[in-house]
């Protein structure tokens, strides 16, 4: 699985997303050095909560799809046309989730999520 450095920062500094993690087998986590796949043998730690969840594109699409309403579908499609780039699609999807559901945007200079003004 390919995770950019920026995407890793966006995930590990994101309490909202980390709270959605269910620690399922097949999930990807960051151990502070590199991504790890959670499988039958575990993460190499007695507590998987020591790691930060790295949602896959499938996880992100599920987050978008589970809450999207028919009336918001056009807004979502317009947002995709304006902002999504194939090389950063996970970052783009995470930014959409955070903007729409949590009114937060990523500040790449500070490497943190900031509250938006609701605009």
Task: Map the helices and strands.
Elements: H1 5-12, H2 15-18, E1 28-30, E2 35-37, E3 52-53, H3 57-67, H4 73-83, H5 89-102, E4 104-107, E5 112-115
Antiparallel strand pairs: 1-2, 1-3, 4-5
Helix pairs in contact: 3-5
Strand content: 5-15%
| Helix content percent band | 40-55%
- Structural class of the helices, strands and pairings? alpha+beta
- The general outline is globular
Number of helices: 5
Strand order of the largest sheet: 2-1-3
Give the helices and strands as they follow along the chain. HHEEEHHHEE
Q: Biggest β-sheet, characterized?
A: 3 strands, antiparallel
Uncertain segments are none
Q: Report the mean per-residue pLDDT as an integer.
A: 83
SS elements, strand count: 5
Rg (CA only): 15 Å
Number of domains: 1
N-to-C terminal Cα separation, in Å?
34 Å
Could you please describe the fold and organization of this structure?
The protein is an alpha+beta fold and 119 residues long. It has one domain. It contains five helices and five strands. Strands 2-1-3 form a three-stranded antiparallel sheet, with helices on one face. The chain has a two-stranded antiparallel sheet with strand order 4-5. The longest helix is centred in the last third of the chain and has 14 residues. The model has no long low-confidence stretch (mean pLDDT 83).
Keywords:
5 helices; alpha+beta; globular
Q: What's a quick, concise take on this entry?
A:
This protein has 119 residues and is an alpha+beta fold.
